[in-house]
Design brief:
The complex is a heterodimer of chains A (about 170) and B (about 100).
Chain A: H1 3-24, H2 28-48, H3 52-76, H4 89-113, H5 128-136, H6 140-161
Helix pairs in contact in A: 1-2, 2-3
Chain B: H1 5-25, H2 29-53, H3 58-88
Helix pairs in contact in B: 1-2, 2-3
Chain lengths: ~170, ~100
């Protein structure tokens, strides 16, 4: 087994472990911290997949901006009462049934198709230059639309956060 | 056994299933939101793996857009949660049933 394979297994196990801890943890702040760890190990997997730009974006945007926003809101709301609540048995049973079903569908479809194992001579690497070239030529219109979407989201957030809506 | 596309797809499926379980089983709005993020990340991992193993960059451009839209979605969603909390003093989904008679 080569080094990238070992690294894949290490980071995959870490991601699954932290993902499990997000779900079972009672304290929202601890959940948020484990989500940061999951996102970090996913960024490491992106590096293993030659997606260097996306790994950097994942750390900057997700682990940086988005999670800071999450922790900020958790601190803003008083969630002390949340920890004393019981977890509903019905929710857990329903969750397990639906998760088992969807996992069975996923794994079965993967095992049946057996997608190609060897990445025959990889030429495309997701570094900043090649992704940037695609973004500013072939994907120019979606890129501009996304910038408008970000503006709309910004205006919406400012409106929503005002004390009273007139 | 060398790591192939199917390993990444199975990992992505496991992470997606964990997120879905959290969305269904947990009752706190913020934790539900975090589990949604976990599901989005699982989908991103699958897209990047497809992009690597088919040897083109379209999947990665798509993940770029997904991350951008997810950031906008988190900002708007958290603002909504804060506005809701200000009005109702709770972030527990079973007490936020205004539309239910």
């Amino acid at each position: 087994m080569s080094l990238p394979d070992i690294l894949f297994y290490v980071f995959a196990a870490f991601a699954v472990l932290c993902g499990l801890l997000i779900v079972v943890n009672r304290n929202p702040v601890t959940s948020a911290m484990f989500l940061v760890l999951t996102i970090g190990s996913l960024a490491a997997l992106f590096v293993l997949l030659n997606a260097f730009f996306l790994a950097a974006i994942q750390v900057l945007v997700y682990a940086g901006a988005v999670m800071v926003l999450f922790v900020f809101v958790i601190m803003l709301l008083d969630l002390k009462a949340e920890q004393r609540r019981k977890i509903k048995v019905f929710g857990v049973v329903g969750g397990l049934v639906s998760v088992g079903t969807i996992l069975a569908i996923f794994v079965r479809s993967v095992l049946q198709t057996r997608p190609g194992a060897e990445p025959a001579a990889v030429t495309a690497t997701g570094d900043t230059m090649s992704l940037g070239k695609m973004l500013f030529t072939q994907y120019l219109l979606p890129f501009e639309i996304v910038s408008v979407l970000l503006l709309v989201a910004m205006v919406g957030v400012i409106l929503l956060s005002k004390k009273e809506l007139k | 056994m060398t790591v192939g596309l199917e390993h990444y797809l199975v990992l992505s499926a496991i992470l997606f299933a964990l997120g879905l379980f959290g969305v269904i089983a947990r009752r706190n709005l913020l934790v539900i939101y975090m589990c949604l993020e976990l599901m989005l990340n699982a989908a991103n991992l699958a897209l990047v793996a497809f992009s690597r193993f088919t040897d083109n960059l379209h999947g990665q451009v798509f993940v770029f857009f997904v991350i951008t839209v997810a950031a906008a979605e988190v900002a708007v969603g958290l603002a909504l949660i804060v506005a809701l909390y200000r009005k109702r003093q709770t972030a527990h989904v079973e007490e936020l049933t205004t539309m239910k008679l």
